[in-house]
Amino acid sequence: MGMRRLLALLAVLLLLPVYAPVEGGYAGELAGNATEIYSFLYNHSAALGISNETIAAIGGNLTLAENQSNETLRALYLRGVVRLELNVSASAVAGLIKPWEEVNATLGELNATNCSGPVRALLGNLTELESDLKKARESFNGTVNASMVIGDLNKTIALLSTERVEAIANGTRGCLIKLMDSQRMGMESELGTAYSALLKLMAKTTGTLKTVESLEKTLDGLLNATSGVGNVSAYRSFLLTKEDELRGLKRELRGVESSELKLKGEIIGLNGTLEEGYGNALRGINSTANLSAMLSYYRAFIGLYNNVSSISDGVKGVEAEQAELARNLTSLEKGLRSESVKAISGKVGSLQGEIESLYSTLQEERELLLGINATNAAISENVTALERSINGTLEKLMKWNSSVRSIERNAKAVSYKNPAPLVQYWKDLGKIEMGLKEVNLSGISSSVQRILALSESATQSSSSSTTSSTPPRSSTTPASNTTASTTPGKSKGAGHYIILILKGIIIAAVVLLGIIAAYWGYYVLRQKREEYEVEKQRKEEERRREEERQRYWKKIEDMRKKIGGIERQLRKLGLSGDPTARGKLEELRRMAEEAEEAFQMQNYAGISEISRAFLEKAGALIAALEDYGKTLKLDLGSHVAADSYIGRRENNEDAYIADKVEGNVLLAVADGMGGHLAGEVASAKAIEILKETLGLNKFGDPKEILREAILRANEEVYRMGHDPDHPERYNMGTTLTAAIVRGDTATVGNVGDSRTYLIRDGSIERLTKDHSLVQELIDRGEITEEEARRHPQKNIITKAIGIEKELRLDEGDVKEVKLKPGDYLLLCSDGLSDALPDEDILKTVLSARSLQEAVKLLIDKAYSFGSDDNITVVLYRH
After folding, report:
1. Higher pLDDT residue, 663 or 675?
2. What is the pTM of this model?
C-alpha cells in the first residue's frame, strides 16, 4: 500500500511542472461545473438509467478532488471527475438509444417501416444528443460547458418523457393495428382466393374422376363388344394397355382428391387460427405501451403469413398436378378415339370386301338360276323359292354395306370427349360380321347345281319320250302300202291327224315359251324396279339426313353468330371485363360447344333442347344489355335532383347518392342512427360500400348487388363500431334505402325507416316497409299512419345496418319494380316522411316546375312543419 502511495505521489510530482501555472480560479470554475453536472446526474439518475454505484463513484471522486489542498492537484482530480461525468452522460444516452434501435430494427425486420416514423425521429434526436456529448468528451481539454451537457441531458429526458413515449407507443400501436388489419385482410383474401381455387379444383377433380369412370365403362364396353369380332387382336391389346393407364390415372386422381380434402381442412383450420391470432395480437397490442411487447404480439400474428403462403403454394401445387393429369387424360382420350376410329375403319374395309365378294358370287348364282328352263312345276317352284332366298340375302348385303359405311362415317365424327358411341358401333359391326358368317353360300350354290341337274334330267327325259312314240319306217311301210292299196281313204285321214297334232304341240310350245319369256321379263323388270326403289329410298334417306344435318348445323351456326354479336355489344358497352357479363357469355359458349358435341353424335334431339335453352338465355342477356346501354346513354342531370339539410340538429348524420355507375343509376339515402355516436360515419360508409359494390359488378343482378352491399356495409359498420381504438363510434349504425335503375326496371332495397316512394299517374305508393316499432303497431292494427307520425316511440327501429353482427334480410327487403316514362322515385330520410303525409309529398312533387324545385319545396315544408331531424330527399324521374 505504501508503494502505491509513493508511486501516486511521484506521478503527481512529475505532473506538477505541467500544471504549475494553473491558478486557483481555474480549479474553482472546474469544481463548479463538475458539481453542477454531478447534481443533475444525481437528481435524474433514474430517468437516465444511471446506476447508484456510478453516481456514488462520481460523488466520491468529486469529494476527493475537493479535499485536495494543492490547487494543481485539485484541478487535476477535478479534470478526471469531469471526464468521468462526460463518459457517464454519453454512455447513458447511448444506453437509452439502444432499445429504440432494437425497436426500429424489429419494425424493419417485420416489414413495418411505415410505423417506424416516430421511432426514427426519436432516434435521430437522441443520436444527435449522443454525438454532442461524445464530442464534448473527446474535445475535453480542461474546460467544459456544463450548461450544454445538462441541456443535452435535459433534452434527452424530455424526449423520453412518459407523455412522449406514450404518444410514440400510441402512434405505433395504431399503425400496427392498421397494418395488422391490412395483413389480416390480405391473408384472408389470399386464403379466400386459395379456398375458391381449391373448391374449383375439387369440382374439376370430381368431374375428371367421373370422366375417368365413364371412360372405364367405355373401355370395358369396347372390350366386350370386340370379343366376338374377328381380326382385332391388336386393337384389343391397345384397349387393355389403355385400361391399365386409366387405372393408374385414377389412382393418381384419388391422391389429388385426398390432397385437396387435406388442404380444405387446413384452410378452414388456418382461417380459425388467423382469427384467433388476430384477436390475441389485437388484445396484446392494446394492453401494453411497451413497444417491444407490442411487436412480439405483432410478430406472432404475421408469422401466420408463412402458413398462408404454404397453403397457397399447396393449392398451386395441386392445381399443377391436376392440370398434368388432365392433360394425360386428354391425351389418353384422344389416343383412344384415334385408334378406335382407325380400327373401325380397318374392320369396315374388311367387311366391305367380304360383302362385295358375297354379293358378286350371289349375283352369279342368281344368273345361273335365271337361265334354268323349268320344264315342270316342281322345278319351277324350287327356282322361285331359291331366287327369293338369294334376293333376300342380296338385300341384306346391301343394307349391311350401307350400315358399315355409316358406322365408319359416324365413328370419325365421334368426339374424344365422349367416345361411348364407339361401343355401339363395335357391337353393330359384330352383328354384321355374324350375319355374314350365317350366309350359306355353299348351300345356295349346291341348291343351284341341284336344280340345274334336275332341269337337265327333265329335258333329257322329255326328248327320249318323243323318240319312242314315232314307229320305225322300215317296219310300217309294207303295211302302209298294203293298207293304202286296199283302204286309201283311211290312210290319208290318219296322216292328217298326226300333222294337226304336231302343229298343236308346236303352237303350245311356242305359247309356253312366250309365257316363260314374259314371266322372265316381268321378273327381271320387277327385280330391277325393286333395286331401283331400294336405291331411291337410300338416296332419299341420305338426302333427308343431310337436310336434317344442315338444319341442325344452322342452329349451331346461329348460336355462334349470336355469341359474336353479344361479344361485340359487350365491347361496345365496356363490359368485356365484367365478371357477370363474361360469365353469361362463357355459359352461352359452353352451350354451343355442347350442341356441337351433340351434332357429332347425331343427337339432334339434344341440339333442339340446347338450342331452346340457349335462345332463352341469350335473349335474356341481350335484353339486359339493351337496358344497360339505354341507361348508359342517359343524361342523369335532367332526371335527378337531391339535397340534404341539417335542420334543427347540431350535425348532419344523413348521407345520400344520386349518381350514374356506368349503365346503372344509383340512388340511395342513409340516415345515421339518432342517439348513436358517429352516425354520420356509419351513413357515409354505407353509401361508400354500396357504390363500391355496384362498381365492382356493374352488370350483375341488381337484387344480388343490393343484398351483398347491405350485408357488407353491416359487417364493416359493425366492425368500426366495435373498434376499441374508437370508443366514440361504439354501437353506431345507419338506415339505408337504395334503388338501382337499369333500363325500365328499378331494384329497391331497404333497411330501417328511410323510405322509397313510387309516384305514378297522380298517385303515390310506398315501395319500402319501415323496420320500426310503430310500423309493427300499424301492422297489428293498434295505431294508424297519422298516429304513427306523432307516436313518442316513432324513432325506435327494429332493423338497421351495423347494430348487430348478423343482419337478416327478408324477402320483401329487396324487390323489383317496372317503371314507365314519367314515373318518379323519391327516396328520403324520416326527417321528411315523419313531418309530411304521403299525400302532401305527392302534391308537392306534382306541382313543382322542376325536380330541383320539388326537392327544395319538400325540405322547406318538412322543416316548417316542425321536423326535428336531418332532412334528405333524392328525386328521380324516369
Report:
1. 663
2. 0.45
